[in-house]
Amino acid sequence: MVGRRWSLAWNSALYGTEGFYRRQTPGAHFATSVSGVPGTTQVMADALCEFMDRQRLQRFLDLGAGSTGLAVCMASRRPGMPVVAVDIRPSSGPGDADSRGSSASRVKWIDVCPGTPGRPVLRRLLSSLSETLVFAHEWLDVLPCDIAEVGPDGSLRYVLFDSADGREVLGPPLTGRDSRWCRRYWPWSHLTVGDRLDIGRSRDEWWAFVVRSLRSGVAIAVDYGHTIAARPHGSTVAGYRGGRSVPPIPDGSCDITAQVSMDSLPARCVIEQRAVLACLGVRSDPPNPSTAAADPTGYLLALSRRAAGAALLGPGYGDALWAISTAGSDRPATAQEVLV
Question: Chain-wide mean pLDDT for the chain?
């Protein structure tokens, strides 16, 4: 049998010796709801400040910060608030100049190695933080996971990737925890031969680690994903390079992501981004035109802010899901309870 499980090939493609993230930064290849659209970072920061006020949280940690600038914006909104930005890097080294310049002096930047090697550092950091909001924006979707496919015999089998010739082959049937995860969270009886799915167990375990390690506070994972009521009919693994979608080949030539099974995460509730942000005061309706004459500058600023709000609430960005977890509590909750 040739090839490795997709999770291993994926991990090597992003973080290995010749990995994509050793040569590139994600922001150069795709946009998110806190980067790529003018004004959205500021609108998101204000919404998070509102959430922190409601939850009486005193610290902010941007997990998987990259170069989005969200941590810097949070520090500017609350000059006295401790702000930490955790960047997941293949090896320790200097940060991106655009995200760690003098404007970021109030942000404490910490580089954490990806995968298991970075766990001790992340655990020590999280266990030292109380009354903290941990915000992981599009972090889980780049954590490698395995892919399974229905084989000719009807069994669900691992998909293997042979880096020597770039071929995929079917491996052994799923067993153990992966098999149990699929039975519970991605029922596949309706799938036919050749259909695929993403095994999200590794993401669940990472998120459980984050929530369990946090001393006290709230952890929020924001990602494009799905719930059991509407699982995709196939794997969601995708590749991006230079702002365009490309075949997701785990050879280090492109960024690789996959949507997240949000309802399998250990979270108190899962809510659409548009619903969360609307509850936190984000608006998309245009300001009153009658105010333009009296305060043209203020009107233009309000117009720009509403445009950014419309982007965050609209199709695409607004479809992202928030999985909200509370340190020390796994009791399910309604959106109203969490956002009040």
Answer: 89
